[in-house]
Amino acid sequence: MTIITNSPEETIRTAQTLGSLLKAGDIIAYRGGLGAGKTTFTRGLAIGLGLNDNVTSPTFALVNEYCGNTLNIYHFDMYRIECESDLESSGFYDYDFENNIAVIEWSENISDFLPENTVYITINALSDFKREIIIEDGGRFASTWN
Prior knowledge:
This protein has helices at residues 8-19, 38-48, 84-89; strands at residues 2-5, 27-31, 63-67, 72-77, 101-105, 119-125, 131-136. By secondary structure, the protein is of the alpha/beta class. Helix 3 (84-89) links the parallel strand 4 (72-77) and strand 5. It is globular, with a radius of gyration of 14 Å.
């Protein structure tokens, strides 16, 4: 499904809706260039999950963790990951994905290592504020935006 948003606030509201539908074990894999709005979208997911943490880009930390009462979000940046040994040394496999949610920026770099049920979100910048958001979820959330 494809959604067009016209402002960062609309992008956050769209992600907030999706966030309210996520459950433990979900993996969100972003595709999109620098400045496309991946971190902004993650802010919306966190709001939708009821998390109050300040969401920031994990560029230099590789992973930021946002804690909730029942679920946490692990927000990864895989920009510098080039192979499975890089992924392993990043500590990626040490996180409890089964009981939490993973959000992965630059997922293209680790696509071979993501599970089959991963939700892919492509964010394309159409202008300074307008975004095309493509959600590939196997139809799981289709009725939400129809």
